[in-house]
Design brief:
The complex is a heterotetramer, with two copies of chain A and two copies of chain B.
Chain A: H1 6-10, H2 22-60, E1 62-67, H3 74-86, E2 91-96, H4 99-110, E3 123-129, H5 136-146, E4 150-153, H6 156-198, H7 200-208, H8 213-245, H9 271-293
Antiparallel strand pairs in A: 1-3, 1-4, 2-3
Helix pairs in contact in A: 2-6, 2-8, 3-5, 6-8, 6-9, 8-9
Chain B: E1 3-10, E2 18-25, E3 30-34, H1 41-48, E4 56-61, E5 64-65, H2 71-78, E6 81-84, H3 96-100, H4 102-106, H5 113-122, H6 138-150, E7 156-160, H7 168-183, E8 187-191, H8 195-201, E9 208-213, E10 216-219
Parallel strand pairs in B: 3-8, 3-9, 6-7, 7-8
Antiparallel strand pairs in B: 1-2, 1-4, 4-5, 9-10
The complex binds adenosine-5'-triphosphate (2 copies) and magnesium ion (2 copies).
One magnesium ion binds near residues 86 and 160 of chain C.
C-alpha cells in the first residue's frame, strides 16, 4: 500500500512499457545468446591472427639458397651471390651457414659422424626476408646469370597451405562475427516488432490519451535498448568467463592460442555497446514503422 | 464548433452502417446517442476522435479536417478530447492512479496530485488507487475510464456506454460529474442504452437526444 | 441442490469482501444478484464455478465439495455450468460461431450446427457468425457470451451483467431466453445493476432477489 | 463469407491455439537458428574426424630407424635389426632405403651431386606400423642391446601435437553439438512458457467452457511441436545449402574437408526430428506445470 505516488514513478515515462513482458525478456535473451557467440567468434578471429602470425614467422620470412660450384669457384660465387642478395629489395639479412649448422641439419639422416668437412657440400645461405618479401622470380633470373650453381628454395611449397589455412580460418572468423552482428540486428528488429505487437494495447491506450509517435516510440526504444544492453553484457561476461575457465585447446597443438591474450581481453568489451547501438537503431526503425502503419 | 460531421458515411467493407450523417456539436452542448446494439454508436464516436477514418464525407474537429492532419496534430487534437472507450483500456502493469494520470505523463506535464485524488474520490476509487486494473471490478474500471477522460479538462468528452456496469446511484454520480463539466463549457456526448439515465438527465441539463436507426442519425427528442 | 454455499467468506487479501455468505440454489430456481459496484457480485459467481477458491466456508456444486475435487472433475463440473463472464472472453482468432460452439469442441463432441444457427438467430447474430470477436460491437459480444453459456443446455446458468451493453428490447429478448431455459429446469442466477430488468422479469418468472451489502448476502425482494 | 463451418475447421481442436501468434513464430525462429548452428557444429565434428584420420594416416603410421655402424658390421647389424623388427608386434613391414632414395632426401641440402656411394652413410630403414602401433620404448631397449648404432625415430614429436589438435577440435565440435541441443531445449521450454503466458486468454476461455488440462496442454503441444519441426527443417535446409554452396575452406590448407562428404550429408537430417522431440517434451512439461499452477 505504501507504493510511490504516480508522479515519482512515472515522471520520466520509464515504466510506460511493461518491464517484465516476455518480449522484453526475449530481447535480453537474444542479445545474451548472440553476444556469447560473438565472444567465441572474436576469439577465433583474434587467434587465427596469432596463428597466421606464428606460421608466417616460422616459415614465411626465411628462404634458403643452395650454391653448388667447383671448389675453386665457390668463394667467388659466394661473394657474388651475397652481393646480389644485398642489392635485392625485400631481403633484410643473409647468413652463410656454418659447417656445424649443416651437420645439425643432416644429423637425423646420417648420424652425428658425417664427415662434412671432406665432402664437397654446397654452401647454404639463409635469407631473412623483410615483411613485404622479395621477388623470387626476379632473383632467380639474376642468379642464373651470375651464379649458375645457385638454387633458391623459398619454402613456398611448405608455406602456401599453412598461410592459406590461417587466412581462411581468419576469414571464417570475421565472417561469423559479421553474420552474428547481422543476425543480432535482424533478431532484435524482430523482437522489437514482437514487443510492439504484444504491447498493441499499450500503444492503443497511449494514442487514446494523445501521446505523439515520438513519445511512444521513445518508451519502447528505451526499454528495449536497456534490455539488449543488459543481455549483451551478461552474454559477454559468460562468454569471457568460459574462455578464462575452459581448457578449450591444450598447451600444445596448433590450436594453442585459441583464446584472448593480453589486450585481446578488452575487445569483447566492445560487444555490449555495439549490441545496444544495434538495438537502438533496430527498435527505433521498427517502432516508427509500426506506428506509422497503424494510424 | 467543436465537432462537425458533414454527409459522413462509413462501414467496415460489408453492408452499409452509417450513411450521410450530419452532426454539429457546439461548445458547451450535451448530447445523448442511442440506437440498438450494433447500430454504429461506437463507430460514430471513433470517427469523431480519429481512431477510424470515414469512407466519405467530412469531419472537422476544432475547425480542422481530421483527414488532412499530420500525425502529431492528430495526437495534439486528441489531448483536447476526453474519450471513454467501450472496452475500457488501461495499461495493466500500472496502478489505477497512474492510469488515470496517464494523459499528463503522455504529454510530458506534471501530474496534479490534488486534482487526481479529488477526482478518484468523486468516482469512489480512492481505496483502489494503487490497485492494478485486472484486479478491479467491472464498474470500477468504468469509473476509472471516466476519471481519465475528464482529468485534463478536455474541450469535449466522448463517452461510450460509461454506465453499463455501475449501479444506479453511481451512474447518477457520474452523470452529475459530466453535467458539472458541461456547465463549465465542456461539450459532452454520451452513447448509452440506458434510457433512464437520459430521462433523469433532462432535469439537470438541456440535452439533445440522437438516435442511430436505419443507418442514419436522427433526432429522438420526443419518443424517449 | 445445484449450488450450496455455507458460511463462505472471501476477500483478496485486503479488507473483508464477502463474510458468512449462505446461498442455496435449487434446480429450476431463478435468482437475481444485485449490489453496488465493487460489492463482490462477480467474486461470488467466480466462487460458484471454481475460478476462485473461498478463504473459508463450504461450497458444494451438484452435491460435491469444489475444494476436494480433482482438476478433471472440476473441468467436468464446469461443463454443467453455463458462465457469462463480465469481461466477455473469446478466442480472438476464431469466428463468433466457432467461439459459441467452443464448449462442444473442448469436450470432444460434434457441434450441432442446427442448434447453433437457431441460437445465433435468437440473439440476433446470424449475420455476424463469421466475424472475429474484436470486430464485434460491445452488445454483440455480450449476446455471443450468452449464447455460448446456454448452448450445452447446462444445469445452471451464472450470468454476470449479461445486459450491460444491449438495448432494452434486446435485454428483454435475452431475459426471455433465460426464462425459457429456466422453465425447462435450468437454474439461473443473474448478477445485474439493471433494476428495470429485474422488475420486468417479475411478470415472467418467480425470481428471488439477492443483494450484496455490508459484505453479506441479503434478500432484497421488497425494496426493488 | 464462404468460410468453412465450425465443425470442419475446429473438429480436431487444431486451431484452438492461434497459428500466427508471435510466440509461435518465436518457436519456429529459435529452432531454425539452433538447427542452422547445429548443422555447422555437426560439420565441424565430422570434419575433425576426417582431419584426425588424415593427419594420423600421413604421420602416425610410419617411423624411421637409422643405423650407423662400421662398414664391416653394417650388413650383420642390418640383418639383426630387421630380425628384431620382424618379431616386434605392431610392425607391418620394414624396408631398407635404397641409395637413390637417400640421395633424394638429401638433395635439398646438398644438391643432386652428392657422392652418396662413397660416404659412410647410415642405413635408413622405414617402418610401417599396424594401426595399433608398436611399443617404441620396448623396441629401443632391444635395439640398444643387439645393435647399439640403431636410432629409432617414431616421429612422435611431429605427430603428437597434430593428433592432439584434431582430438581437441573434435571434442570442441561435439561439445558445441551438445551445448546447442541443451540450448535449444532450454529456449524451446522458454518459448513454450512464453506461448502459454501470451495465450493466457486462450487457457482462461478453455477452462471456462470445461476443457480438461490434457486437452489444453495437447493443443499447445501440437502447435509448438509442429512449429519447432518446421523451424528446424528450415534451419537445417538452409545450413546444408550453405555448406553445399559456400566455399568455406579452400581446396588446399588443412581446413580442407570442412563440410559433409558422402553419407555425412544424411546426418543433419536427424536434426528436425530431434528438435521436434525436444519441443514435444519441453512443451508438454511446461504446459502441464503452468496449468497445474494456475488453478
Ligand atoms: N473493426 C470492425 N470490423 C468489421 N466490423 C466491425 C468492426 N467494428 C465494428 N464492426 C461492426 O459494425 C457494427 C457497428 O459496430 P459498433 O461497435 O459501432 O456498434 P454499437 O452501436 O456501438 O453497438 P453496441 O451498442 O453493441 O456497442 C457491428 O455490427 C459490428 O459488428
Ligand atoms: N483479483 C483481485 N485482486 C484483488 N482485488 C480484487 C480482485 N478482483 C476483484 N477485486 C476487488 O474486489 C472487489 C469486488 O470485486 P467484484 O468484481 O466482485 O465486484 P462486483 O460486485 O462484480 O462489481 P461490479 O458491479 O463493478 O462488477 C472490488 O473492489 C475489486 O477491486
Ligand atoms: Mg458500442
Ligand atoms: Mg462484477
Amino acid at each position: 500500500m505504501a507504493r510511490p505516488g504516480p508522479r515519482g514513478s512515472l515522471g520520466d515515462a520509464g515504466r510506460i512499457v511493461p518491464r517484465s513482458g516476455y518480449t522484453t525478456v526475449l530481447t535480453t535473451l537474444i542479445s545474451a545468446a548472440m553476444s556469447f557467440l560473438a565472444v567465441f567468434a572474436l576469439a577465433l578471429s583474434l587467434s587465427s591472427g596469432t596463428l597466421a602470425q606464428r606460421w608466417s614467422d616460422t616459415l614465411a620470412q626465411t628462404a634458403t639458397l643452395r650454391l653448388s660450384a667447383p671448389q675453386s669457384e665457390i668463394g667467388a660465387q659466394t661473394a657474388a651471390v651475397l652481393e646480389i642478395l644485398r642489392t635485392t629489395p625485400g631481403i633484410t639479412a643473409t647468413r652463410v651457414l656454418e659447417v656445424d649448422e649443416q651437420r645439425q641439419l643432416l644429423e637425423p639422416w646420417f648420424g652425428p659422424d658425417l664427415p662434412v668437412e671432406v665432402l664437397a657440400l654446397p654452401r647454404l645461405i639463409e635469407i631473412i626476408e623483410s615483411p613485404e618479401g622479395f621477388d623470387a622470380a626476379g632473383l632467380r633470373l639474376r642468379l642464373s646469370a651470375e651464379a649458375p650453381g645457385a638454387v633458391l628454395d623459398d619454402h613456398t611449397r611448405w608455406r602456401r597451405p599453412l598461410v592459406q589455412a590461417a587466412a581462411s580460418l581468419r576469414a571464417l572468423a570475421w565472417l561469423s562475427v559479421l553474420l552474428l552482428s547481422a543476425a543480432m540486428a535482424a533478431m532484435i528488429t524482430l523482437a522489437a516488432g514482437f514487443s510492439l505487437a504484444a504491447n498493441a494495447q499499450v500503444i492503443r491506450v497511449l494514442r487514446l490519451v494523445g501521446a505523439r509517435d515520438a513519445f511512444i516510440a521513445g518508451a519502447f526504444v528505451r526499454r528495449l535498448t536497456v534490455q539488449a544492453l543488459v543481455g549483451a553484457a551478461a552474454g559477454t561476461v559468460v562468454g569471457m568467463a568460459a574462455f578464462a575457465l575452459l581448457p578449450v585447446a591444450g598447451e600444445a597443438g596448433f590450436l594453442t592460442g585459441l583464446g584472448f591474450q593480453g589486450i585481446g581481453w578488452l575487445m569483447p568489451l566492445a560487444i555490449p555497446p555495439l549490441a545496444g547501438a544495434i538495438a537502438y537503431l533496430a527498435t527505433r526503425i521498427a517502432a516508427l514503422r509500426v506506428l506509422r502503419r497503424e494510424s | 464548433m467543436v465537432i462537425r460531421l458533414a454527409n459522413v458515411s462509413h462501414d467496415y467493407g460489408g453492408h452499409g452502417l452509417l450513411a450521410g450523417v450530419d452532426l454539429h456539436i457546439a461548445p458547451g452542448t450535451f448530447h445523448f446517442l442511442t440506437g440498438p446494439s450494433g447500430a454504429g454508436k461506437s463507430t460514430l464516436l471513433k470517427l469523431c476522435y480519429g481512431e477510424l477514418t470515414q469512407n466519405s464525407g467530412e469531419i472537422e474537429v476544432f475547425g480542422q479536417d481530421l483527414r488532412g492532419m499530420s500525425r502529431n496534430a492528430l495526437a495534439d487534437t486528441r489531448r483536447r478530447i476526453g474519450v471513454i472507450h467501450q472496452d475500457c483500456q488501461f495499461l495493466d502493469h500500472l496502478t489505477l492512479a497512474e492510469n488515470v494520470a496517464l494523459p499528463f505523463v503522455a504529454t510530458g506535464r506534471p501530474v496534479p496530485e490534488a486534482d487526481l485524488h479529488e477526482l478518484l474520490t468523486w468516482v469512489g476509487l480512492e481505496r483502489q488507487a494503487n490497485a492494478l486494473p485486472p484486479t478491479l471490478s467491472g464498474g470500477e474500471r468504468q469509473r476509472a475510464a471516466l476519471a481519465r477522460a475528464v482529468i485534463m479538462s478536455p474541450d469535449v468528452v466522448l463517452a461510450d456506454e460509461p454506465t453499463g456496469n455501475v449501479d444506479w446511484d453511481m451512474s447518477q454520480r457520474l452523470l452529475a460529474l459530466l453535467v458539472e463539466l458541461n456547465r463549465m463549457g465542456t461539450a459532452v456526448m454520451i452513447a448509452t442504452h440506458d434510457l433512464n439515465l437520459i430521462r433523469t438527465a433532462k432535469s439537470q441539463v438541456s440535452a439533445r437526444n440522437l438516435r442511430i436507426a436505419d443507418n442514419t442519425l436522427q433526432s429522438a427528442g420526443s419518443d424517449l
